[in-house]
Amino acid sequence: MTTRGFLLGKFMPPHAGHLHCAEVGRARCDEMTVLVCSHDAEPIDGCLRAEWMRACLTAPGYRVVHMHRDIPQAPEDHPDFWPIWRAAIAEHHPEPIDWVFGSEAYVHRLAAEVGARPFPVDPERRVVPVSASAIRADPSAHWGHVPSPVRSFFQRRVVLLGAESTGKTTLSEALASDQGAVPVPEYGRDYDALFRHGQTWEADDFAAIVDGHAALATAVAMRGGPMVIEDTDAIQTLVWAEALLGSVPKELVAQAQSLAGEGRKTYLLLDHATPWHDDGTRHFPDPARRAWFTERLEAWLEAFGADWHRISGPDWAARAAAARSALGCA
To answer: Which label site among 59, 193, 199, 296 has the fewest CB atoms less than 10 Å from its CB?
Structure first.
């Protein structure tokens, strides 16, 4: 005989405690349904929360259902609170429910309303000492309880841009080290070394670089901490396309603008007034060309309405100090 478990919540956002409840339910039952409940007046989109839960609960036996509906949120809100919720649950879970799981006190009444048995899970939050409200208030303090699919929503992404030989890689490694991490590497540099060797660039190459770097950044972010450091991104690629092709494909501009607007992203534009060091892969030692590169980066940052800071200084230590100050990490 199939046993069915049930868990409902706002999951705003999902955290390790929610997943613990679901995992206990799946261990106890053959089928475990998670109902993600949302309404209009909430700070995190309900469809996104449902996507997160599906990404977190991928093993066989889980089912994640989303209900977006403006119905009473507490018994004192409406005299028919429980009949309203009983009907809503039956609509989304018409099968009999055997067990209702949850860490809140209402799990007992909810189970009685749907004809099931209650299974309180960690009601005193000893196993997983966290709440969704605590994560929303201070994600960094509870980062270990934020599941990988959810992390990018709360992360601060810091991207370093600049002309060649301005210290992007050096500074990105220093800033990432502050976080006990490694930076997202510059994919375009590897792409050039593998496929182009500095020659015969085409528009498709720059689209491939944008896609490749975005994939690297996404993967690093899922395992990363509250701050992710990137050594360049699509805006840098736009300027390289302009420098090497003489123009920028419209599709690349649209893609870069979309990526620049994702999440909490801060750009650090490194000034070109630095010594030139030729590492064998660089193109433009001319000071005027380096100044042009900086001007074009600034123009794209302004065009996209990005949050950005210019970083300058007489040496690397001064630039690192200026970067940390701009990020509030000094």
So the answer is: 199
